[in-house]
Amino acid sequence: MISEGSCDTVCKAYDKARSRTCVNIGSVFLRWIELKEQEGLRSDAEVALFLLDRGVTLMCVSPP
Fold first, then answer.
1. What are 19-48's pLDDT values in tens digits?
2. Where are the domains of the chain?
3. Can you tell which superkingdom this protein's organism belongs to (predicted)?
4. How far apart are CA 45 and CA 2, in angstroms?
5. Predicted local confidence at residue 2, as pLDDT
6. What is the DSSP string of the chain?
7. Exposed (0-12), middle (13-18) or buried (19+): which is 42, by Cβ within 10 Å?
Protein backbone atom coordinates (compact mmCIF):
# COMPACT_ATOMS: atom_id res chain seq x y z
CA MET A 1 0.00 0.00 0.00
CA ILE A 2 1.25 3.49 -0.85
CA SER A 3 1.31 6.00 1.99
CA GLU A 4 -0.34 9.37 1.54
CA GLY A 5 3.01 11.21 1.59
CA SER A 6 4.47 8.81 -0.96
CA CYS A 7 1.42 9.25 -3.20
CA ASP A 8 1.84 13.04 -3.07
CA THR A 9 5.47 12.68 -4.15
CA VAL A 10 4.58 10.33 -7.00
CA CYS A 11 1.70 12.56 -8.12
CA LYS A 12 3.88 15.67 -8.10
CA ALA A 13 6.57 13.92 -10.14
CA TYR A 14 3.96 12.73 -12.64
CA ASP A 15 2.42 16.21 -12.93
CA LYS A 16 5.86 17.76 -13.46
CA ALA A 17 6.69 15.30 -16.26
CA ARG A 18 3.28 15.76 -17.87
CA SER A 19 3.46 19.55 -17.74
CA ARG A 20 6.45 19.46 -20.11
CA THR A 21 4.26 17.98 -22.85
CA CYS A 22 0.97 19.67 -21.98
CA VAL A 23 -0.43 22.28 -24.35
CA ASN A 24 -3.35 24.52 -23.39
CA ILE A 25 -5.70 24.72 -26.38
CA GLY A 26 -8.32 26.65 -24.44
CA SER A 27 -11.48 27.47 -26.36
CA VAL A 28 -10.86 24.93 -29.15
CA PHE A 29 -10.85 21.93 -26.78
CA LEU A 30 -14.34 20.86 -27.89
CA ARG A 31 -13.26 20.96 -31.54
CA TRP A 32 -10.24 18.81 -30.61
CA ILE A 33 -12.51 16.22 -28.97
CA GLU A 34 -14.93 16.26 -31.93
CA LEU A 35 -12.08 15.72 -34.40
CA LYS A 36 -10.70 12.92 -32.25
CA GLU A 37 -14.07 11.12 -32.27
CA GLN A 38 -14.82 11.90 -35.93
CA GLU A 39 -11.52 10.46 -37.14
CA GLY A 40 -11.56 7.53 -34.70
CA LEU A 41 -8.30 8.61 -33.10
CA ARG A 42 -7.50 6.98 -29.76
CA SER A 43 -5.16 9.49 -28.15
CA ASP A 44 -4.31 13.17 -28.14
CA ALA A 45 -0.94 12.26 -29.64
CA GLU A 46 -2.75 10.71 -32.63
CA VAL A 47 -4.81 13.89 -33.07
CA ALA A 48 -1.66 16.02 -33.01
CA LEU A 49 0.05 13.76 -35.56
CA PHE A 50 -3.07 13.80 -37.77
CA LEU A 51 -3.09 17.61 -37.75
CA LEU A 52 0.65 17.87 -38.39
CA ASP A 53 0.44 15.44 -41.30
CA ARG A 54 -2.53 17.33 -42.74
CA GLY A 55 -0.67 20.64 -42.45
CA VAL A 56 2.39 19.25 -44.21
CA THR A 57 0.21 17.83 -46.99
CA LEU A 58 -1.57 21.18 -47.47
CA MET A 59 1.76 23.02 -47.59
CA CYS A 60 3.07 20.63 -50.26
CA VAL A 61 -0.07 20.91 -52.42
CA SER A 62 -0.68 24.67 -52.12
CA PRO A 63 1.02 26.99 -54.61
CA PRO A 64 3.47 29.51 -53.05
1. 777 888 889 999 999 999 999 999 999 999
2. 4-61
3. Eukaryota
4. 30
5. 52
6. ---HHHHHHHHHHHHHHHHTT----GGGHHHHHHHHHHTT--SHHHHHHHHHHHHHHHHHHS--
7. exposed
